[in-house]
Design goal:
The protein has helices at residues 5-10, 14-25, 33-41, 54-73, and strands spanning 78-82, 85-89. It contains four helices and two strands, in the order H-H-H-H-E-E. Helix 2 (14-25) packs across helix 3 and helix 3 packs across helix 4 (54-73). It is globular, with a radius of gyration of 14 Å. The longest helix is centred in the last third of the chain and has 20 residues, at 54-73. Helices cover 52% and strands 11% of the residues. Strands 1-2 form a two-stranded antiparallel ribbon. By secondary structure, the protein is mainly alpha-helical. It starts with a helix and ends with a strand.
């Protein structure tokens, strides 16, 4: 299946686009890793798809760290530590 040239040039995985879309939708807020994972992987209200279990969400949060690190390195997402927490925004 073909992909848009923009996706090819950026070299991002589908999950990275979901992260960017989530952060754009909430552009006036900053989130911790687990909050972004919940926003990206939790089905929309009214969806027939079951939500992830707690262990699955923990695993998805850990995986999310890699996507966010890549997006920060590419300058597409901002990262800032405030106190003992790390936040991400677009």
């Amino acid at each position: 299946m073909p992909i848009p040239r923009e996706h090819f040039d950026e070299g991002l995985e589908d999950t990275s686009y979901k992260v960017i879309d989530f952060l754009k939708t909430h552009s006036k807020e900053a989130f911790e890793v687990n909050e972004i994972a919940e926003g990206v992987f939790t089905p929309a209200p009214g969806s027939k798809q079951p939500g992830p279990t707690s262990p699955e969400m923990l695993a998805k949060s850990k995986r999310m760290e890699f996507f966010l690190a890549d997006l920060v390195q590419k300058g597409m997402v901002d990262k800032r530590s405030i106190g003992d927490k790390t936040y991400y925004c677009i």
